[in-house]
Amino acid sequence: MGEGQRDRRQHPRFTVAGKATGRVTAVHDASLVDISFGGVLVEHSQVVRPGTTSSLDLDLEGKRLRLRCRVIRSVVNRIELQPDGEQAVIYHTGLEFLDLSEETRQVISDYIQSITEDESGFGLPSGEHSADTPHLSY
């Protein structure tokens, strides 16, 4: 970000690095990019409208969570060439968690703590992604 811009996030983001799976209840395929205490960033190839709500089913360390989310933003991230020669627009969409229970907050907190501790005691900073990014249906 430039000097004149501020990060508007309320919660720090943590890279998932292939350690979670889930399903967003809609009709799109998506990959989980990162997670914070307030939401997730997903990557997909269909248009999503900001302001809409959806459900996100996440499996975090063997616990299935159904989370109500609001689409905060959805922006074009890149264009990919598909195996059939067609081009696909890839979007990054930020989903904000809505109405989390204390139990769910604790599961997310425990999960974030677990992914920030690798063999050396440090996790991947947000922005460094594993090739094993989990797959979601969105």
Number of helices, counting only DSSP H or I runs of 4 residues or more: 1
3D shape = globular
- Count of β-strands: 8
Number of domains as seen in the coordinates: 1
Low-confidence stretches: 1-5, 123-138
Order of helices and strands: EEEEEEEHE
User: How big is the Rg?
Assistant: 15 Å
Structural class: mainly beta
Cα distance, first to last residue? 29 Å
In CATH, what is the homologous superfamily? predicted glycosyltransferase like domains
Verbal overview:
This protein has one helix and eight strands; from the N terminus they run βββββββαβ. By secondary structure, it is mainly β. It has one domain: predicted glycosyltransferase like domains (Thrombin, subunit H). The model is unreliable at 1-5 and 123-138 (pLDDT under 50).
